């Protein structure tokens, strides 16, 4: 007799979400991201990828803070909480990042230290460089199954397109 569960027969579909935490378009895309998470569960791996834009003064710090949230075990929860406060982040800056951390029960002092010591700079810089290399120019941008979908121009129909690709990839993986 074994207490183990059967192994997953297919790998999850990976959806890279190139995002900027001060971006109003990324805030608007939250409903789609939540719907995708609800529909696919563990059959889809959503990966937050950072693409801070120069026009948003606090985006780079927000990306670093999001990586600290990942280190503390609440990456997506933190990203969603910050995205729901993009206007406040724009007007008040880094104190909002620390407040969100505290509200989620994370170690806000460690966030402050991480922003000062730059421990997550390399992750943010690597994401941004990779994004530029594959043609990301704005946020949100999604990459699934090797296809890049630009949500910065319009979110219209993107969730449906992502679902089509995900369903096709999952069906193909199940058929193997």
Low-confidence stretches: 1-6
Strand order of the largest sheet: 2-1-3-4
Helix fraction, binned, reads 55-70%
Cα separation of the termini: 29 Å
| Number of strand segments | 4
Most strands sheet:
4 strands, mixed
Number of helices: 8
Question: Approximately what portion of the residues adopt beta-strand conformation?
Answer: 5-15%
Helices and strands, in order, run as: EHEHHHHHHEEH
Structure write-up:
The protein is of the alpha+beta class. Helix 2 packs parallel to helix 5 (94-103) and helix 5 runs antiparallel to helix 6. It contains 8 helices and 4 strands. Residues 1-6 have low confidence and may be disordered. The longest helix is centred in the C-terminal third of the chain and has 18 residues, at 158-175.
């Amino acid at each position: 007799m074994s207490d183990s569960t059967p192994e997953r027969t297919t790998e999850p579909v990976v959806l890279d979400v190139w995002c900027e935490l001060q971006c109003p378009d990324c805030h608007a895309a939250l409903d789609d991201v939540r719907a995708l998470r609800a529909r696919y569960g563990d059959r889809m791996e959503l990966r937050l990828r950072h693409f801070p834009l120069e026009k948003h003064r606090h985006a780079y710090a927000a990306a670093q803070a999001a990586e600290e949230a990942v280190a503390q075990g609440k990456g997506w929860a933190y990203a969603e909480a910050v995205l729901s406060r993009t206007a406040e982040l724009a007007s008040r800056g880094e104190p909002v990042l620390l407040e969100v951390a505290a509200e989620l029960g994370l170690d806000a002092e460690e966030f402050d230290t991480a922003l000062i010591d730059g421990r997550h700079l390399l992750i943010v810089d690597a994401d941004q460089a990779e994004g530029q290399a594959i043609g990301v120019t704005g946020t949100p941008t999604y990459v699934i199954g090797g296809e890049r979908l630009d949500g910065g121009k319009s979110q219209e129909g993107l969730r449906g397109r992502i679902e089509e690709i995900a369903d096709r990839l999952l069906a193909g993986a199940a058929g193997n």
